[in-house]
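Something for you to look into today, if you have time. What I am after is a single protein written out in full by you. I want to see for myself how the chain folds. Could you add the entry underneath, on a fresh line?
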Amino acid sequence: MSERRGRPRPWLLVLALLLVCLLGAGVAWFVRDSSRPSSCEVVRNDARVEKALGDRYDEGMACAELGAAVKAVTMGQAPGKHSLGQAQAMKDVLLAVAESADEADGGLDAGLRLPLGQVLADYRADLQENMGLTSAAYVRSGLPTKPAWEDGAGVHVSVDWKTTLLPVVRAVSEDPGAYAVIRDALTLQGAEGLVATEPDSTGSELSAPAARSAWALGNLDGVAADVVRDLGKNRGQEWQAAVLAELSAAGDGGKTAIPAFSEDAAGHLVARWRADVNDKGAEALESQGASLFGAWCDAVRVTGDDREAARERVESGQKAARREALAYLD
């Protein structure tokens, strides 16, 4: 009996060996993963960022300091107004942030999300051009080697949507406040485009401004869907609730006055949509392009078959952009 109890059991030896191997693999994974720098470090150490920040650069700057410095060198004194140097700094930072994902550990540092979201929002005209039905000029200038440019309409900057801007917007949008800032900016840009449309336009001339806006908004729908999917059910619901609170009429479930179209045309359209968010929740985001277009048609008394045909194009465009953005992010 004593000899049987002292005999080694092969299955115990195999189990012990497996545990040792698993423990070793886990330690190796931890060491390898923890040795990777954060995205803040990668962006800070990028030569393009150092050049963009100029005298504001400090190799030991914290993430919050880096975010503040990026805002300082990319944003002008007046909202949406930029010099060529600021626009080029913007492009260099976007390229660095997009490329940091391959080198950094995890997603974009929390300290960079809101500042970058605010910078993107300040470039709302360029943002819509890059995220919407992109013009040929923006496509050509989206190459990494192409600089920011200036023409009779002002200063412009472009990056490739799929390889640069989409990954940055997705990374920034982990912060619901940053996502809401970007969505607010594109909402105002779309409203201003509608206000500039001639009410007696027909066909594609009637639908084009709304369609460009809706495509950009649909891309944001795709980003939101991807964030919620990755966060999981509970955290995804919390993220969505925070976004809706930011975008609703008063940000806290309350109501705010809607200005008269004759006094503030773009503000009227934006306020009507924000009230829709308060009433309808996420549904108001998914139908935003058509909703803004419908509010503008009501205000300027556009009716008939042209209105309905344009509304259908706008609605289908937003849905198509959402599907495309999600496919890129998979």
